[in-house]
TrEMBL record:
Domain (S-Me-THD N-terminal): residue spans on this chain: 9-165
Domain S-Me-THD-like C-terminal, first and last residues per copy: 171-356
Record Pfam families: S-Me-THD_C, S-Me-THD_N
SUPFAM superfamilies, per the entry: CV3147-like
Domain of life of the organism encoding this protein: Bacteria
Name of the protein this chain belongs to: Hydantoinase
Organism: Roseateles aquatilis
Length: 364
């Protein structure tokens, strides 16, 4: 058996790792961390398990917040609506969940499920549906394997709740986004119910532990006075794409996602060059006038040049000195079917995807 008890202090490393893998989006994991830490103090540690601890026919369910990350910064998360959404979905399915899992390994939804797991005494599977954060319900490896997000339960902090069981994911996406706005711009959900047998083929396994290792590496780099940016590149097998100072920001919320652009002017070895980061909740394209540095589905992350602290799209501000990192996505996102779902053109950018390691090699 392999059971990892996650206590209050463990969440510090998980949350900072989740902030990095959120690629600028996914909501601020600090808020989710505080909620989970409160639940753990009240109910005891959460159990992080592998799928081997469950039977193949056991049911597992994801719990998550849905909405624009900018709104989530202003509305403190609660556990009760997550429990309500979970109970609604269980009632619809006529089965209880044997375990929970995270919808994404980046941002708030990496740590939010720990609060429900601790309060209900349910284990949390060490895995997620993406290996990063994406903004749409069908942008998951589960969807690529034919596992539907529906039926999906929604709830808010007022006690309102409902279950959606739609004919296709496009209908589900539209309804969820409309209801999210009606619920104040963000809400709570339970979704992607599946068996353990299905999860073995469709989840990114070990991803929560990955965030913990990343967070620990950053903490250790600070304690040992090492270059935190270099340590993040090492532990993630990533690339430092650019270092510079933020000189311009453009932000909008279109009712579904936070959208915008950050312009960075180069420092040190990148002096004399400017780079733009384009985002829709998550950073999706890093480009200069002459070339593409990285694009979705690879991960584009911004961190503080001095501390290595991950910076979300909402936290980027004029004058910040940042390093832009490019992390290879999990291999499953690089298939033609996956690129069609989450590549640059899926977000309206007229460019072809090329792996970040190839783009980095071209610049040398």
């Amino acid at each position: 058996m392999s059971v990892n008890l996650i206590d209050v202090k463990d969440l510090d490393a998980i949350a900072i790792g989740a902030a990095l893998y959120g690629t600028g989006g996914g909501g601020d994991p600090h808020i989710g961390k505080l909620l989970a830490q409160r639940a753990i103090r009240a109910h005891g540690p959460a159990r992080l398990i592998t799928l081997d601890e469950l039977r193949d026919d056991d049911l597992i369910i994801s719990v998550a917040m849905i909405g624009a990350p900018t709104v989530m910064l202003e509305r403190l998360a609660e556990t009760a609506p997550l429990v309500l959404a979970l109970r609604q979905l269980e009632a619809k399915l006529g089965r209880k969940a044997a375990a929970l899992f995270s919808g994404e390994v980046g941002g708030m939804n990496s740590v939010i499920p720990f609060s429900v797991a601790a309060e209900l005494g349910l284990p949390l599977v060490d895995g997620d549906t993406m290996g990063r954060a994406f903004p749409k319900l069908d942008m998951t490896l589960c969807a690529l394997h034919g596992i539907d997000a529906a039926p999906l339960a929604l709830a808010d902090e007022k006690g309102n709740g409902l279950v959606l069981d739609t004919v296709d994911v496009q209908s589900l996406e539209g309804m969820v986004r409309a209801l999210t706005m009606e619920m104040g711009g963000s809400c709570y959900s339970a979704l992607y119910s599946m068996t353990v047998a299905q999860a073995r083929k469709s989840l990114v396994l070990g991803s929560i532990s990955m965030t913990q290792r990343t967070g620990k590496a950053l903490f250790e780099a600070r304690e040992r006075h090492l270059d935190p940016v270099a340590e993040l590149v090492r532990v993630t097998d990533g690339h430092c794409l650019f270092k510079g100072k933020v000189i311009d920001l453009q932000r909008t919320i279109d009712g579904r996602w936070s959208k915008g652009l950050a312009r960075i002017t180069g420092l040190d070895e990148h002096r004399g060059e400017d780079v733009e980061l384009l985002y829709q909740n998550e950073f999706l394209v890093a480009r200069s006038e002459e070339r593409i540095l990285a694009s979705t589905p690879d991960l584009i992350c911004t961190v503080d040049m001095e501390t290595g602290e991950p910076i979300t799209a909402e936290q980027v501000r004029y004058g910040l000195r940042v390093a832009v990192l490019g992390l290879p996505c999990v291999p499953e996102w690089r298939t033609p079917a996956a690129i069609a779902r989450v590549g640059p053109r899926a977000f309206g950018y007229d460019l072809d995807y090329r792996p970040v390691e190839q783009l980095t090699m071209d610049r040398r």
